[in-house]
Specification:
6-stranded mixed β-sheet, Maltoporin, Chain A, 22-stranded antiparallel barrel, mainly beta, globular
Length: 714
């Protein structure tokens, strides 16, 4: 830890020294008494711009965007962070949605991490971080929204970019492209990419202690995978009042893993079982989506817009797992073959109407989501408790109204959303049905004021619903580990989250953002683990048995020390209060957490850029009973642009001081203690190449409203 901090500080001091030398050199150059010279004004957009419902991060104004992918850049952005497994956290949790140009895309719902790694930050214009989504967004699952705005605008002509990147020793490779074409009234925008990964073998250990038993497991695992995605968006301006937009997308992902596991089980300090197992697992996912938006304007009132939208979304995901056991007890199977086929489809219909009534902006609409989730799962040898056909049909009907106006120098955004939900769950083999029908009236309000051009303050309150997704609902029981069983819970109910927030911002030469928030939920669906002493098996599922609240401060500071040297810090400090019951026993998991990300960047002449980062993460809650360990990280990078910034090359090394990282998860149950850790590769190095070409002129039009299903929990 000390070595990392000293190295990062040394790097920052070195950059400061280079800048000081540059100033001295400039001061020694004699200046003529009188001269007439050409004046070049290099205007730079502010890095962060505040809005009444959040803020906008200008990616193009950040020099590190040339050397990082989009996922890595999110470590620097207010309210965002990454955990040890590179999963995005929004104010410390995973309950949020990611959009591209205001639209939900299936590829960022099912496989966001690999996709965001394959997108160079240099191809992105802005990131909207919406901390208090208005009532026009679905009430479900969106405690926050990340909206990615691409850098390419649709205009007459064309522009395009291609990129390639690799990272070692995990052997992760990605490539992507984007293309914009505009001719008269027709515009086409397309992007796509793919990734390959061949992760080398890593080790892990599980240990569990009860009053009389002791379990130790030693494992090795490796994996391969590949995937790809493609999305095309076409718009046609029929005339000045009618605009048609059509979007098509497809994606796929395949993964294969091999796992060797040795399990030693002792009773009263006597070894009673020594099992060796080999697990081979294959997973395959493929998705398709299509949407259409038709926007109608009005000659007599240019502020009026009426939009009709439709979206179809389908995703199939299959997992096949084969586990062979040696030295297992005679009354248990020596091998298990498990298959779990999931089918998910969704039809969405939406109508939106926008109008200005004097100085009040009014927005209202209707929406219907018809969702169908199904799963066929089997185990061989057959077990009736783990072989069934599961069907979950969910229809959501919503109506909303939201307004924006100014009063006494303050800006207001307020609204209401009414949603009716009809859920029917059916188990074919047992003829078991679960029906859930409920109404929710969801309020939302944001109040803000800006003064002296640079200062801003915002307050907000919102309620959101978190409905469980197919992973949480699916009752399929994974039995590949002989001592642990993991399953979903089809009886889960939705959760209402309440969010209070206040934000202060100062944006001038220095950019400062402070956000204070308090959120709380009751009967939230967290993971719960119970130990069965009769079978010595620990079962993990989800239950609506917990209450969670978070009191946190999020902060972001960006300081350009000089024109070439910039330092920044992004982070948060929060206290989690987690309480619940496990087998009717009260359980608490209260924890203070913090996240700090330091960054220093220096821009040399001739488009050379170097950067250094230091990351510090505290322990984090993982469920009602579990926590993950603290960790630190560091990185160094450089980039170079040539051909008038069309061709960019960057290289980096992450965590040069540590080859491996020990990721630990501790679970404290009512009758057991469990410790799981994975020894994974931490040091990595790689490079990215991006080439942009083409030129556009007039900006292309897109429909103002489109479907955004921001409702399911990740």
């Amino acid at each position: 830890m000390k070595t990392k901090i000293i190295s990062a500080l040394f790097f920052i001091l070195l950059l400061s020294h280079l800048n000081a030398q540059e100033k001295v050199k400039d001061s020694l150059v004699p200046k003529p008494e009188t001269s007439i010279q050409e004046v070049v004004i290099n205007g730079k957009k502010p890095l962060i711009k505040t809005k009444i419902d959040g803020l906008v991060y200008n990616v193009q104004s950040d020099p590190e965007s040339k050397s990082k992918n989009l996922l890595e850049m999110m470590r620097k952005m207010p309210y965002l962070s990454l955990d040890a497994n590179e999963n995005i956290l929004f104010k410390g949790n995973t309950n949020f949605k990611i959009l591209i140009n205001g639209k939900e895309t299936q590829l960022l719902t099912n496989n966001p991490k690999d996709v965001l790694k394959s997108i160079p930050a240099s191809t992105i214009r802005n990131i909207e971080i919406i901390t208090n989504p208005s009532s026009k967004y679905d009430a479900e699952g969106a405690s926050g929204i990340i909206n990615i705005i691409t850098a390419n605008k649709m205009s007459d002509g064309y522009n395009a970019s291609v990129n390639f990147g690799s990272r070692f020793p995990k052997q992760e490779h990605n490539a992507g492209f984007s293309l914009n074409i505009k001719q008269n009234k027709l515009g086409i925008s397309a992007y796509g990419g793919g990734f390959l990964k061949n992760n080398p073998e890593i080790g892990y250990q599980n240990s569990q202690q009860t009053a009389s038993n002791d379990l130790k497991q030693y494992g090795r695992t490796s994996g391969k995978g590949n995937g790809g995605y493609f999305n095309v968006n076409a718009s046609y301006e029929i005339d000045s009042l009618n605009l048609l937009n059509v979007q098509l997308g497809a994606n796929f992902a395949n993964n294969r893993s091999k796992d060797f596991l040795n399990s030693n089980f002792s009773q009263q300090n006597i070894l009673t079982e020594d099992i060796n197992s080999i697990n081979n697992s294959d997973s395959n996912g493929k998705g398709f989506e299509a949407s259409a938006n038709y926007q109608i304007g009005f000659r007599n009132d240019k502020s009026q817009l009426l939009t009709f939208s439709y979206r179809f979304n389908n995703y199939d995901y299959a997992v096949n797992s084969m586990t062979d056991f040696q030295n297992r007890m005679t009354n248990s199977a020596s091998n298990i073959n498990q298959n779990n086929d999931n089918q998910n489809s969704e039809n969405t219909f939406q109508i939106d109407f926008v109008k200005n009534i004097r100085k009040v902006y009014l927005e209202t609409g209707l929406k219907a989501i018809l969702r169908k989730n199904g799963s066929q799962y089997t185990s061989v040898p057959e077990n009736l408790l783990n072989s069934d056909e599961f069907l979950n049909q969910q229809n959501i009907y919503g109506a909303y109204v939201t307004t924006k106006f100014s009063l006494f120098g303050w800006n207001f955004q307020t609204g209401l959303r009414l949603e009716s939900t009809d859920t029917n769950v059916n188990f074919t083999s047992t003829n078991t049905k679960v029906d859930q029908n409920y109404f929710n009236l969801i309020p939302n309000i944001s109040v803000g004021k800006n003064w002296k051009e640079h200062h801003g303050i915002n307050f907000g309150f919102s309620q959101r619903i978190k409905r469980p997704g197919i992973i949480r609902l699916n009752p399929f029981v994974n039995q590949s580990n002989p001592y642990f069983q993991i399953s979903g819970n089809p009886y889960l109910k939705p959760v209402v989250n309440n969010d209070l927030m206040a934000n202060y911002s100062y944006n001038n030469k220095i950019s400062l953002n402070l956000g204070l928030g308090y959120s709380f939920s009751n009967k939230i669906d967290l993971k719960v683990s119970t130990y069965d002493p009769a079978t010595n098996i620990t079962k993990t599922t989800y239950e609506n048995s917990s209450s969670v609240s978070r009191l946190g401060l999020d902060y972001n500071l960006n300081y350009p020390v000089t024109k070439k040297f910039t330092v920044s810090v992004n982070g948060n400090s929060a206290y989690f209060f987690i309480n619940g019951k496990v087998n009717e026993v009260e359980t608490q998991n209260n924890l203070f957490t913090y996240y700090i990300y330091f960054s220093a960047n220096y821009q040399f002449e001739n488009n050379w850029n170097v950067g250094s980062n230091l990351e510090i993460n505290s322990r984090m809650p993982a469920s009602l009973q579990s926590t993950t360990n603290a960790f630190t990280g560091s990185s160094f990078s450089f980039s170079k642009s040539i051909l008038d910034n069309q061709l960019s090359f960057s290289a980096y090394i992450n965590n040069p001081f540590n080859q491996f990282r020990k990721a630990v998860t501790e679970t404290n149950g009512t009758a057991f203690y469990q410790n799981n850790y994975v020894r994974d590769y931490y040091r990595s190095f790689g490079f990215n190449i991006t080439y942009k070409f083409g030129k556009l002129r007039d900006e292309f039009k897109e429909t103002k409203r489109k479907i955004q299903n921001n409702d399911l929990a990740n």
